[in-house]
Amino acid sequence: MDEHAHNTCIICGEHKLEGIHIVSEFICDACEAEMVHTDVQEEKYHFFIHRMKQIWVQKNA
Fold first, then answer.
1. pTM: predicted TM-score of the whole model, two decimal places
2. What confidence tier does 60 reach under pLDDT thresholds 50, 70, 90?
3. Inter-CA distances, 37 with 1, 7, 15, Å
């Protein structure tokens, strides 16, 4: 894989260079950092869960 390829984050939708791949999807470093520091009581937590469901929905489609 080209390490300099732009990837589209499934959370923010932006093209980024740095981040992680989960199955066939990409999460940028900024979103990953925000996700791990978000409390489960926050509304943003549910947004992250909803966006991450794309990983399994697309894989099992």
1. 0.80
2. low
3. 30, 23, 22
Q: Are 40 and 53 in contact (CB under 8 A)?
A: no
Per-residue model confidence as pLDDT tens digits over 19-54: 999 988 999 999 999 999 999 999 999 999 999 998
Q: Under the phi-then-psi rule, with left for phi > 0, alpha for psi from -120 to 50, and beta for the rest, what region is 42?
A: beta
CA distance 24 to 39: 26
DSSP 11-61: TT--EESSEEEETTEEEEHHHHHHHHT--TTSHHHHHHHHHHHHHHHHHT-
Write the single-letter amino acid at 42: E
